[in-house]
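Continuing the series of single-chain predictions for the mutant panel. This is the parent chain; the variants come on the following pages.
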Amino acid sequence: MAGRTLIRGGLVITASDEIHADVLIEDGRIAALATSGSATAEAWSAERTIDATGKYVIPGGVDAHTHMELPFGGTAASDTFETGTRAAAWGGTTTIIDFAVQSVGQSLRDGLDTWNAKADGNCAIDYAFHMIVSDVNQDTLKEMDLLVEEGVTSFKQFMAYPGVFYSDDGQILRAMQRSAENGGLIMMHAENGIAIDVLVEQALARGETDPRFHGEVRKALLEAEATHRAIKLAQVAGAPLYVVHVSAQEAVAELARARDEGLNVFGETCPQYLFLSTDNLAEPDFEGAKYVCSTPLRPKDHQAALWRGLRTNDLQVVSTDHCPFCFEGQKELGRGDFSKIPNGLPGVENRMDLLHQAVVDGHISRRRWIEIACATPARMFGLYPKKGTIAPGADADVVIYDPAAEQTVSAETHHMNVDYSAYEGKRITGRVETVLSRGELVITEREFTGRAGHGVYTPRSTCQYLT
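Parent structure:
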C-alpha cells in the first residue's frame, strides 16, 4: 500500500468520457480506474483515501501560455515561477508551458538557459517551455533543430512589437520552413505591428492617451490581416500554425476558413476575451489600464464568435497568457500615454473556474471544458497522455472539483502576486477543493500543502494534434 492513494466516489470527467469511478494512484501515476461500488474497486486499499462523493474528478489543467518573470516595457511580470505556479495550483492547473525568450543578438540556448535558471527548484507544479524566436538567422535555425530534439518543440514569433520581438515575413517564412522539417510548431502573435505603430503615433498626437485607445488602435482588422498572412506563409512553408490569444471574430473567420481547407491551423483564445470587453478598457480614473493586454479586449459582440469557435473546434485551446503587472507602480507607468502601459493580465488561477462557469452558463459541455483546458493543450504541445487525462499510466495530476461551491473572485483572496483581479466581484459556481501533482497533495481541502521545487521540467514530444 505504500505510496498508494485512492479517490472514491467521484464523477471522473475526461475529454471523452464521464463515469462514476474510483481512481487508484500508485508511484505518482494513475494505476487503474474501476466503476464505483464494483467488486474491483471495493477490493482496493491504499494508505490515503480521498472521498470525492458529489464532486468531479478531473485532470489537472494544462495552461499552455504563461509569462512568469517576463521583462517587458522597462519592468517585469509580477509573478515569479514560485508565486505563479502556486497560484496555478490553487486554480486547478498542474502544468504550465512558459516562454523562454531569445533577445536579439542572443542565441536560443542562452535564452533557454536563462529561463531554466529562473524556474529550476522554484515551481510547485510541472512546467515546460516554448521558445520565443526574436532573431532569425542561420545559427538560430540550426538551434531550432537541437531544441526540438531536447523537447522544446514549439517556437513563438511576433508580427507585433517592432524593435523588440518583431519578425518580418521573410524571417517568419524561414522559421516555418525549418519547423516543417524538424517537426516543431510555430506559434504566432498575429497583429500587424507596423501598422499599429502608425495608429499609436497618430492617436497620441491627437491627445488620445487614455487606456481605451489601446484597444482602438490595435484594430480587429489588423489582427485578422496578420492571421490571414500567417496562415498563407505557413501554407507556403508546408508547416502547421498555432495562433495565440485570438480575440476578434474576423480572426476566427480566417482560422475557420483555413481549417475548412484542411490546413493544420489552430487557434487559442483566453478567458479575458470570453468574459471581458472594451467596456473594461474604458473604465474611468485610469482603471482601464488594468485590462491592457495584446491582442486587446474587443467589444462584447466578438464573444459569441469565440464561444462558437470553441464549440465547433475552430478554436481548440483556452490558455491564459498570464502576464501580470501590478496596477500601482507598473500599470501606472502609462499614465498620460497608453502605449507605455505594460501589456498583460493576471489569470492563471482563474481559468479552470471561469470555464466551469461557462459550462454552468451553457456555452460548453463538461467534456469540452476538459478538452480545451487539459487534453487538447497536452496533445497540441506533446504532453499527452502523460498530462491532460485520467487514464492508467498518466501522471496523477488530479483535481477534486466541487461543482456546487460558490465563490466571488477577488484580489483579496487570490494567490497571484498582483494587486488587482481582472474579474473582481465576479460570482462563480464551482471551485477547486483538492489538487494532486504526480500523486502528491498540493492543495488539500483548500489549503496549500505543496512546496517550491516539487514541480519538474517536462520535455515534450512534437505536436500530437496534426490532421
